[in-house]
Amino acid sequence: MSKKVTFGAKPQAKEPSIDSADQWVATRNIEPVVASPVVVEPEKMKRLTIDIPDSLHRSFKSKTGGKGEKMADLVRLWIENYVAEE
Predict the structure, then answer these.
(1) Cα(5)–Cα(2) distance, rounded to whole angstroms?
(2) Which is the most buried residue in 13, 23, 35, 47, by most CB within 10 A?
(3) Statement: the pTM of the whole predicted model exceeds 0.90
(4) What does the pLDDT average to over 68-80?
(5) pLDDT of 12 above 70
């Protein structure tokens, strides 16, 4: 997370009310910093290893690759749906 710091405009030489940079610093208008949206840390992942037949792995990989899907995304979805069932 980073901290946002805002600075006022640099005084122009033609401003008679500001004689020096020190006076500008002392009299500048400080704008309130708006808090940034809450950053949610991604949940820590755990690895799951399963054994499946080679032919099933090839078929699954071929089918997901042909649809532009990832095998892990589908397995996660299936597990989420299973856990959500009553």
Answers:
(1) 10
(2) 23
(3) no
(4) 94
(5) no
Mean pLDDT of 40-62: 93
Residue in 19, 21, 77 with CA at minimum distance from that of residue 10: 21
Query: What percent of the chain stands above pLDDT 70?
Result: 78
Q: How far is CA 28 from each of CA 3, 7, 21, 83, rounded to the nearest angstrom?
A: 20, 9, 10, 57
Phi, psi of 24 (to 5 degrees): -60, -45
Query: How many angstroms separate the CA atoms of 67 and 73, rounded?
Result: 12
Concatenate the DSSP letters of all residues of 25-66 into one string: HHHPPPPPPPPPPPPPPPPPP--------HHHHHHHHHHHHH
